[in-house]
Amino acid sequence: MKKLLNVYQSANNIDVALLITRAGVAALMLVHGWPKLEMLFSDGPAQFPAVLGLSATTSLALAVFSEVLCSLLILVGLGTRLATIPLIITMLVALFVVHGADPFARQELGLLYLMPYVALLLTGSGRYSLDYLLLRTVLKPTYVRTLSLQ
């Protein structure tokens, strides 16, 4: 019980939580992005909203880029902070442009996706990621050591 009430978390617990968050939100967003990818490469015209003065095909391509490619990068933890930026923009566009006039129930999903993306932008990918592996092997070990002490 005492462990459940402790507000101070170990670094390992935080890294595991970031891994679960990354893998979970990336897998769930891939479920939304995959049908858009299929729509983008289908023969018919894009049945997608044209937003911010862009054509429907361009809007769809940008959504596919963020929801598929950026989600895959987040899943493996490669360039996580950069990969969250297009997803944050996509969720903001979905919230305020596409579903701006809709009731809250239609906006809620975008908000639920937006929150972990903002958290990952602020925290990074954690120890269980390709970002950490590359940082550890490519950069000098002293730099990694100073990062782990912070």
Features:
single chain; 150 residues; mainly alpha; globular
Structure notes:
This protein is mostly helical. It has one domain. Helix content is 75%, strand content 0%. Helix 2 (11-40) crosses helix 5 (104-123).
Task: Give the topology.
Elements: H1 2-5, H2 11-40, H3 56-76, H4 80-98, H5 104-123, H6 130-138, H7 141-149
Helix pairs in contact: 2-3, 2-5, 3-4, 4-5
Task: Give a brief outline of the structure.
The chain has 150 residues and is mainly α. The chain has helices at 2-5, 11-40, 56-76, 80-98, 104-123, 130-138, 141-149. Helix 3 (56-76) runs antiparallel to helix 4 (80-98).
Radius of gyration: 18 Å
Domain count: the total is: 1
- Secondary-structure-based class equals mainly alpha
Could you give the distance between the termini? Answer: 29 Å
Report strand %. under 5%
Query: Main β-sheet: number of strands, strand sense, barrel status?
Result: none
